[in-house]
Amino acid sequence: YLSEGIWKRQYRIPEHSLSANLSVFPLDGLVLSVTANWQGEVIFPISYPAIDIAEPSRVLVNLSGSYQINEHLEIFAKVDNLFNKEYTISGYKMPGTNFNFGIQLKW
After folding, report:
1. E strands, the chain, where?
2. Tens of pLDDT, residues 59-88
3. Mean pLDDT of the chain, nearest integer
4. Contact in structure between 79 and 63 (CB atoms under 8 Å)
5. Angle subtended at Cα 55 by Cα 54 and Cα 61, rounded to the nearest 5 degrees
């Protein structure tokens, strides 16, 4: 944002970010995806406006897959933070690799 004629970065908003997703459909009803998210450095205040802390940039990779068994039943699995990257958001440590799986019933 512009303050007194000088451009300043917004707090808690990365200056740059990039996301890419690749999905493949190897079989009828099967979807496999990989997503990579890069986020540039984020600055946030500790005691506004005296001290600013910078969180370093990071890349997170996620995998997911689902299989539609029939019109009513789907199974899915997901791995977030595949490479167990340590990172923080607003100074709070985020979890490492996370696994999710389940079924979805549609009626």
Report:
1. 2-3, 6-7, 17-24, 30-39, 42-47, 51-55, 58-68, 73-80, 88-89, 92-93, 98-105
2. 999 999 999 999 999 999 999 999 999 998
3. 90
4. yes
5. 155
